[in-house]
Write a structure and sequence with these properties.
44% of the residues lie in helices and 13% in strands. It is built from 32 helices and 27 strands. Strands 1-10-7-6-5-4-3-2 form an eight-stranded parallel β-sheet. A hairpin with a 2-residue loop joins strand 8 and strand 9. The chain starts with 5 loop residues before the first helix and ends in a 42-residue tail after the last helix.
């Protein structure tokens, strides 16, 4: 009888897996002899007591499980080596699959097929922490998977995954096993998120998904460590982003220590109710149990989900690179994503000197500095004459893997170096790069590396004839690389095309139109190759100019490239200027240089001549020029311009002058916030890059810190307590910190948790401090969805505290028409810190207890924005089934 795949089985039902193998075995009175003296090695029981293992399978199948997992969770050779059984890994895995297969077949009918999932645990050694090498671990998974396939497993399940690098090793090993056995099955991955809100090695669930997304997994989900309540926010992320089946196998609650034993407190009905909610409301399609779950739990779960239809899902995933810790979308809003270029031995003298001295920790510090400066990814190139590139890449990547929070762009022309680095990267890196200079065979090998390790790939428009200079040829080479990559199993969203940047400063007539051709090449690639990304090494355009002139040309070229469709830019983030800050003549000359135009206003009509002469004469678009331009403005306008310019030199003197004429709150609410509004406008228009937004934000923080002691503070006992946080995934905190200052100075106790806070931490703090209200802040559009998810989690847990919501992406309409109605308590919109104060006053006075009562202060200054549109709630549609592994 032919059996369906898991994906096929899930098309017309919610699929129910079994419960805890370990818990069930512990209750069967096994002796040391049953374990051959290897107590704790459950895997050996398929040889010594196969009938007991079969009884466990039968108990779950009788209870309603449609899929049972093999007794092979600890079947890796590296785990079995702890019992002296490493040489028996294949045989034990095969026997485990045979025992499960026989049990499943005994319950299977044509109408009710029963499947066997080959269990592959994460092992006891974490490659991210250097406990085991990637290749050794992948080979171990090949052995384990081969045995499971030979014994009749219908799918392979990588479960209790705590280290993304181990997951990649498992997927690599499983693919090799299927190749050797000549049998393909679906593969699934189930992550374990600790009570800390991350995997054991620190990965957020969004990063974990970004890392496995390029692989052909049929199902992704969560199991172990916690009960369903703690899993809820992470499941929401998977259901919102994953275009695969989503599974949930919780423990029977968080274990409690009772007389020295772990007791799981969640009973069958409570667990079944929670999982039925995940199915009906989140769209989870596969359920089951982990530690502490018995046949009674599975019976209740199977009954609870029978006949349920999973909520339709509309996965919305932005293709991303990832570090070990977080995901970074390849497309930012506004663009471009900035790739830091300072870890490059060919382009940075300072880095080259660190490399020559093997000062590894200083190189790591340089990576962190780029992150603070606004880079989104880090280019890493250690190729330097006379040095061992493979060794150097390994030494640096091994450190950056755990020390850097940004994804890595692995920059090398050596396939061996790339493979070495890929085997050390826990996240999803970018390979830089592939081209056709040496023909298709080498290109295919590098594309194969990208596919095997799940990496994104930079494609240079270079072929056997050399670098493509004209737009038409750039497109032709890009199309050829695109077709080749798809043949090798990559997808358009895995590809990042670099149409090449040539210097515009040589005066060589051959390159006079090089900027124009590159920009046109960008446009054509984006038009003709939908779904791909684009990248440029921006600073190449100005090679040969003095530093000040380079800054101007680089900045203008970057601005024009973004308009042409650029997604990512390799650039020194600190050496780019907002185009609005560049003097008009210099900006116009740089524009003409980029577009290859002449104009009578330049010497001999040549913009390059103008730039050479102007900057040799000392013209500088720097802070000194900004200070001179501000000098004669009224103090309020000077402060506003300081925020826009990100210039804190002399700030305190201006603030002292302002305090002689204005109260501190007026300075903040008028002059300083006006500056931040202009920064927001420039950023949104693409005229200011992220590093300069961060610089402006830092000046704002300095100003507020200086003004805070001058504010009148309410005396007496605390009037109430607010737990305040920027939501998960958002790093913006200026508005939140202003709320803290204003409320604190008006007698409230504010527990400011900081940025990127998961809902669990927020609720823990609210309980710990007896909060009267919770405040959630966020600048990003996606943060509005996180706020919605956080409110839904609060509903699940019976939280009814008032929640104040604020941030640039929110509108009053969205809060009052979408968020407040879905929340069981009150969700209240605070346009600014002062409205937040008024709302807290009403909360502690008991005026905002009734759900549905308008929460906004009726005063004119709190009126809603007339033209603001609420972000639409996400549409919902059925999730696409995942393909089987190819």
């Amino acid at each position: 009888m032919a059996r369906p795949t898991l994906t096929q089985l899930a098309r017309d039902r919610v699929v129910c897996f079994d419960g805890a193998m370990g818990t069930s075995l512990q209750r069967r009175g096994l002796t040391a002899d049953d374990f051959e003296g290897r107590e704790g090695c459950n895997e050996v029981l398929v040889r010594t007591r196969p009938q007991v293992v079969a009884e466990v399978h039968a108990s779950f199948l009788e209870a309603g499980a449609q899929v049972v997992e093999t007794d092979s969770f600890g079947g890796l050779p590296s785990v079995l080596a702890e019992y002296g059984l490493e040489g028996e890994a294949y045989d034990l895995a095969r026997r485990a699959a045979e025992v499960a297969r026989e049990a499943a077949d005994g319950f299977a009918t044509a109408a009710e097929p029963r499947l066997v999932a080959g269990s592959m645990g994460g092992g006891t050694k974490l490659p991210t922490l250097g406990h085991i090498g990637f290749r050794e671990l992948a080979a171990g998974y090949t052995t384990l998977a081969r045995g499971l396939l030979a014994g009749g497993a219908d799918l392979l399940l990588v479960e209790t995954a705590q280290d993304p690098l181990a997951v990649k090793a498992a997927l690599t090993g499983a693919a090799e096993a299927m190749r050797r056995e000549g049998r393909e099955v679906e593969i699934a991955v189930s992550f374990t998120v600790e009570t800390t809100g991350t995997l054991l090695v620190g990965s957020e669930i969004g990063a974990a998904w970004a890392i496995v997304e390029p692989f052909p997994v049929a199902m992704v989900g969560m199991n172990c460590a916690t009960g369903p309540a703690e899993m809820s926010p992470h499941l929401r992320t998977l259901c919102a982003e994953a275009d695969r089946l989503v599974s949930c196998f919780p423990n029977a609650g968080l274990p409690e220590n009772v007389d020295g034993e772990a007791v799981y407190p969640l009973g069958p009905e409570a667990l079944a109710t929670a999982l039925a909610h995940f199915v009906a409301d989140l769209g989870v399609q596969v359920v089951g149990g982990c530690c502490g779950t018995t046949p009674d739990h599975i019976r209740a779960i199977a009954a609870a989900v029978a006949g349920l239809t999973p909520a339709p899902r509309t996965p919305a995933y932005a293709p991303a690179a990832a570090s070990l810790y977080t995901a970074q979308p390849l497309a930012t809003e506004p663009p471009p994503a900035l790739v830091g270029e300072r870890l490059n031995a060919n382009g940075s003298r300072a880095f080259r000197e660190l490399l020559q001295g093997e000062r590894w920790e200083e190189m790591v510090a340089l990576a962190r500095e780029q992150a603070r400066s606004g880079a989104h990814l880090l280019d890493v190139c250690v190729a330097y004459v006379g040095r061992d590139e493979r060794r150097d890449m390994g030494e640096l990547v091994r450190r950056l893997n755990t020390a850097a929070t940004l994804p890595l762009v692995l920059d090398s022309t050596d396939e061996g170096v790339l493979e070495e680095a890929l085997a050390l990267c826990s996240g999803r890196p970018v390979i830089n790069s592939v081209n056709l200079e040496e023909g298709e065979a080498r290109a295919r090998r590098i594309m194969g590396l990208a596919r095997r390790f799940g990496a994104a790939l930079v494609c240079l428009t270079i072929d056997e004839a050399g670098m493509a200079k004209e737009a038409e040829r750039k497109l032709a080479v890009a199309e050829r690389l695109h077709a080749l990559a798809l043949e090798e199993g990559l997808r358009p969203q895995d590809l990042i095309f670099d149409p090449l940047t040539f210097t515009l400063a040589s005066g060589d007539p051959e390159f006079r139109g090089a900027g124009r051709e590159t920009l046109e090449g960008l446009r054509r690639i984006k038009e003709r190759l939908p779904g791909v990304y684009t990248l440029l090494g921006v600073s190449n355009c100005s090679f040969g100019l003095v530093p000040a002139a380079r800054q101007v040309v680089n900045s203008v070229f970057l601005h024009e490239a973004v308009a042409a469709g650029l997604d990512l830019a390799i650039v020194h983030a600190g050496k780019i200027l907002p185009v609005a800050r560049i003097p008009e003549a210099a900006r116009a000359a740089a524009l003409d240089l980029v577009h290859g135009r002449s104009d009578p206003r330049w010497p001999e009509g040549d913009p390059l001549r103008y730039l050479l002469e102007a900057f040799e004469a000392g013209q500088r678009p720097d802070a000194a020029a900004q200070q001179q331009a501000r000098a004669h403005l009224p103090v309020g306008e000077r402060l506003t311009r300081r925020i826009v310019d990100g210039d804190g030199v002399g700030l305190e003197a201006d603030l002292e002058e302002a305090l002689r004429h204005h109260p501190p709150l007026e300075i903040i609410n008028t002059f300083l916030l006006d500056g931040m509004k202009e920064v927001g406008r420039l950023f949104g228009a693409g005229e200011m890059q992220l590093p300069f937004v961060l610089a402006s934000a830092e000046v704002m923080k300095q100003a507020v810190r200086y003004l805070e002691p001058h504010m009148e503070r309410a005396e007496g006992a605390h009037r109430g307590t607010l737990v305040l946080a920027t939501v998960r995934g958002d790093v913006h905190d200026i508005g939140k910190n202003l709320v803290d200052i204003i409320l604190t100075n008006n007698g409230y106790r504010v527990i400011n948790l900081g940025i990127k806070q998961p809902v669990e931490r927020i609720l823990e703090a609210a309980a710990e401090h007896g909060a009267d209200a919770i405040g959630l802040s966020g600048l990003l559009v996606k943060s509005t969805q996180v706020m919605k998810e956080d409110l839904e989690v609060m509903n699940e847990r019976g939280i009814r505290l008032p929640v104040l919501l604020g941030g640039a992406a929110l509108t009053r309409r969205f809060v009052e028409e979408v968020l407040d109605p879905l929340y069981g308590g009150r969700a209240l919109y605070g346009r600014d810190a002062f409205e937040g104060l008024r709302l807290m006053d009403r909360i502690v006075a008991g005026e905002l207890e009734a759900a549905g009562e308008p929460g906004a202060d009726p005063s004119p200054e709190a009126a809603p924005e007339a033209e603001a549109e609420a972000p639409a709630p996400p549409p919902r549609r059925t999730v696409r089934p995942a393909p089987a592994i190819a």
